[in-house]
Amino acid sequence: MNKFIAINSFVEVASQQSFTRAADQLQLSRLQVSRHVQEVEAWLQQRLLHRTTRRVSLTPAGEEALLYCQRILSEVSALELNAHEKIQQLSGSIRIAAPIGFAGKLMLTAVEKFTQLHPKISIDIVASDNFQQLVEDRVDIALRFTEQPDASLIARKLMRLESVLCAAPRYLQEHGIPQHPRVLSEHNCFVHLKQNQWSFVQDQQVFQVDVCGNIQANSLDILIASAINGKGIVRVPCDLANPLIKAGKLTAILTDFTQWRYSLWALYLSRSYQSTKVRGFIDFLVQEFQDDIFLVQR
Questions:
Q1: Which of 65, 73, 274, 287 is the most exposed place for a label (fewest CB within 10 A)?
Q2: Which of 38, 8, 43, 12 has its CA nearest to residue 25?
Q3: What span, in angstroms and rounded, lies between the C-alpha atoms of 111 and 103?
Q4: Using CA atoms, how far apart are residues 272 and 262, in angstroms rounded to an integer?
């Protein structure tokens, strides 16, 4: 058994949740991919996948094995990249789509570091909170916060990011501090991208609350500015919220409840079309964000 090829097939099936789609991505037959996965299961002596006629899903053992297998592939990719860099310096342009708030903060810092390491690389950033079509918009990499990456794309998880509810001190003085999520229906809540149902968890109990307000926008910057002006409550990713909380412009509320945590993914087309510069940048992001879990500053 070629363990590397077998591991690659297993990771692809787990990513695509389909033997057929994985086979297409790897340019192998479905039978070959199925045999590779069986070889990994025999090697580890564990069942890694639940197989039905309609879908494929990971077993608990499969979820654990996937993390190790992804790490192995990442290390091999990094080894290839390091060897290539010794022969030829990365050069050319990379077009990236990223959410507006993220593009202006953490993303920019990462881009600056990468271009310092590779001065012949130029980065074209498309800042948008709408999903970009990689082919139509000529995007090499799309960075997105989601829990269900597009199954037609290759996805690599970069980090987790917590959100927090915030309001200006003036708003809370005038309208009171909410003590439970269910009272949010009585407040002016700013909605981003029509996400008008907010989820909270406390003691393993989930609360889902329908919220509304007099401002909706596809830009968090607009909603944050309105909240700072004392007009309502906004849900903000912690990388944006923490500096404003520290400066006293916003106050975190309902911090006893765990709020929605987002996963940041790098989405890109089939590995068959992935250039060295794109693979190098994705590997860089994996290392840059691997330990970054932004929690509410309490």
A1: 287
A2: 12
A3: 10
A4: 28
